[in-house]
Design a protein that fits this description.
GO molecular function: protein transmembrane transporter activity
Helix content: over 70%
Structural class: mainly alpha
Strand content: under 5%
Family: Belongs to the SecE/SEC61-gamma family.
Subcellular location: Cell membrane; Endomembrane system
Shape: elongated
Distance between the termini: 51 Å
InterPro entries: Prot_translocase_SecE_dom_sf, Translocase_Sec61-g, Translocase_SecE/Sec61-g
Number of strands: 0
Order of helices and strands: HH
Keywords: Cell membrane, Membrane, Protein transport, Translocation, Transmembrane, Transmembrane helix, Transport
């Protein structure tokens, strides 16, 4: 592993990176929020089904 080469590549990436615009940030936030809600809803459905089945779950 060549440390100076790795540091140079990291610095190059950081120089190319930029902060997102407000529109881009809002779009990414909405998509991430929708994903979190979807995963939570699927988990709730699994919990509800497991609760209704006799002898399965808590």
């Amino acid at each position: 592993m060549d440390v100076p080469y790795d540091l140079n590549s990291y610095i190059r990436v950081l120089k190319l990176a930029s902060t997102p615009s407000t529109g881009e940030f809002l779009q990414v936030s909405k998509i991430a929020g929708a994903g979190i809600i979807l995963v939570g809803f699927i988990g709730f459905l699994i919990f509800a089904v497991m609760s209704l089945l006799p002898g399965v779950g808590a």
